């Protein structure tokens, strides 16, 4: 018992010395920092830190290999399916572009405008509206498109909330308005309408088709969807979303502008 008490006494003494040493070190550091703040180097200039790599010299330019100019990022299925989409235009009455509302003014594929919209009327659907402040951004975004691209056919959706049928009804009404005013030419013998849904990857194209199908027909999902891009890799079979008038949507893969 006496030996145990001696050990405890020694341990307590050691802890006390260690605490005093730590306190003295902290006080010295604080005093030195205060002195540096008042007079950094004695001549008014702040102290210079010793560089970790004193011999390092940064490059002024980054030279790419000669073969890099021939490389781009454009998955094979995108180029192929873009041609398929162009081929489908002769049977399509309307094009819907689905884009992420969080990047409403950027990221769109300009190829769509030259190769698709110049031939068929189109609607810009800004999806995921629940992720932005509609009160703050809705009017400026619509005004920007009216002023710069003369684009007035803009609809806002949130495909995760199919209970909010008002937004989908607005889109359907806009679709039917454009479909009925479009000259069908060689498609006059057909009684149904066909709409193509396009956009860059992961903007909610398949989700929009499934939502319209659910809201209007009370049917389950017809298109595979996911939280990652590239779930749809080819132009799908058409999906019925309306009975009166009979209207079908074509799901397409996301296509980026080659770079």
Topology:
Blueprint: H1 2-38, H2 76-88, E1 94-100, H3 110-117, E2 122-127, H4 134-149, E3 154-156, H5 165-181, E4 193-198, H6 205-217, E5 238-243, E6 246-251
Parallel strand pairs: 1-2, 1-4, 2-3, 4-6
Antiparallel strand pairs: 5-6
Could you characterize what this model shows?
InterPro entries: GTP-bd (IPR006073), P-loop_NTPase (IPR027417). This protein has about 260 residues and is an alpha/beta fold. It folds into two domains: about 1-40; about 75-250, Rossmann fold. It is built from six helices and six strands, in the order ααβαβαβαβαββ. The protein has helices at about 1-40, 75-90, 110-115, 135-150, 165-180, 205-215, and strands at about 95-100, 120-125, 155, 195-200, 240-245, 245-250. It has a six-stranded mixed β-sheet, sandwiched between helices. Strand 2, helix 4 and strand 3 form a beta-alpha-beta unit. The model has no long low-confidence stretch (mean pLDDT about 80).
Q: What structural class do helix, strand and pairing data support?
A: alpha/beta
CATH class call of the largest domain: Alpha Beta
Order of helices and strands: HHEHEHEHEHEE
The biggest beta sheet is recorded as: 6 strands, mixed
**What is the average of the pLDDT values?**
79
| Helix percent band | 40-55%
Q: How many helices does DSSP assign?
A: 6
Strand order, sheet with most strands = 3-2-1-4-6-5
Rg is 32 Å
Shape: elongated
How much beta, percentage-wise?
A: 5-15%
Q: What is the CATH topology descriptor of the largest domain?
A: Rossmann fold
Low-pLDDT parts are none
- DSSP strand tally: 6
> What is the domain tally?
2
Supply the CATH superfamily name of the largest domain: P-loop containing nucleotide triphosphate hydrolases
CATH architectural arrangement of the largest domain: 3-Layer(aba) Sandwich
Keywords: GTP-binding, Nucleotide-binding
Protein name: G domain-containing protein
Domain G: 194-256
GO cellular component, one term: mitochondrion
